[in-house]
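Below is how a single chain appears once it has passed through the pipeline. First comes the sequence as given, then the structure the pipeline wrote out for it. We keep one example in the README because the format questions we get most often are answered faster by looking than by reading.
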Amino acid sequence: MRARLTIYRSSAALAAAVLFCGAVTITTAEEDFTALVKRLQQEKPQFAKRHEALLAERYDLGDRPASGVTMSRGKPVQEGVRVKLPKDVTWGKLAALSVEDIKSQNLWPAGFYPLPHPHHEAGGMVFPQPLIDETKRQTDRDLTRFDLDFDFPKHLLPEFPAPIYLTTRPDLGDVSRGQLVTLANFQELFKDILNPKQREGLRLLLTPFPQQQFNSTEDRRSLKPHQGVACFDCHANGHTNAATHTVGDIRPNEHRHRIDTPSLRGVNIQRLFGSQRAMKSVEDFTEFEQRAAYFDGDPVQAQRKGVNILERGSQVHFMAEFQDLLDFPPAPKLNVLGKLDPAKATESERRGQDLFFGKAQCATCHIPPYYTDNLMHNLRVERVYKEVMINGRRASADGPIKTFPLRGIKDSPPYLHDDRLLTLEDTAEFFNLVLGLKLNDQEKKDLVAFLRVL
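Resulting structure:
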């Protein structure tokens, strides 16, 4: 977050305020909302150019769809390794080196470092344009920020709007009927599918509540006073639209992670919630988001901006009950145990499955049928690079991260907890280096082929 902070009369008061804040811009009390907007809009091109240069240095952002491979509703899946290598280095040469050699020779690819927020010092929720446009069309609520824009092109994002599959009605397929579900249409779409309690939970998930950047105070980041943000603004249709934020529970600001919005599909089989917090129920996480993530872990700002305290028995449980109905997309090549049906799989997919459970060691953490072990793991990627500051983000240790399910993984780019990996091919190269797997080019292709059918 980037908070506007009034000049305090005592150093103790200033210190107390800084304790609650991340990156802090100290201004005088005379900066009203008009001056704030003018200043941040003037700064916007500078930070946008900085971030665009970083993405161009790291990645090939071109639109190159894989032949014959689509997400669940038909959007093409992007293919190929998009992370750029240092000059005169190949993936094969890099994989032949030890992690110590990669670090000492400074050969870790730029795209494998932690990815900063589009404006890391400012932080906060940022939404992709398709979500902004459709939300405004249906509800007249504008999720545009005047100080920064979302960073990735839409061909690298999940399909929008995503289909909704329910564990209770698999016979219906996509119950969203190709629409973004909002307060404007959910009653019509779900009146004959959900019971009243579940429908009330969905209503709450679609209801905007005040949030750090979107509220009615004069340090907001929307031009007009704002109702706020709904759970399903990020988790659109119970999936993800790749909206991003900065994690609220790490300080100082330079160590805060960019957050990938995970899919809510399959939360009924998960036992850990939050990429690092290891919360034990979806009810805990639903309640926690309102109290912390919405306001960057700052209870003072939360009270001032209008925190919505959810009631556990009649609101949180209802919201959780609907979330627990969200199912993974169909995977017609998998049997009931979550492995390939040999009669339906290609030779490359079968080889990929053998690698997944063998040489590539993926199944150490990603156990079928849902391809998660519901545990936390620390990859210790910092072994491979020297700590460095990147656009306001200090590339240091990530710490333990939860094992996300891999079912339906082709529907959820970009990858890793901070979006640093754009394709499944990037992901294969990343883990090949981090785990020292020594996979050859064909093995990596076969592994990706298997991941695409999960």
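The first helix runs from residue 11 to 20.

See the next section for the split statistics.
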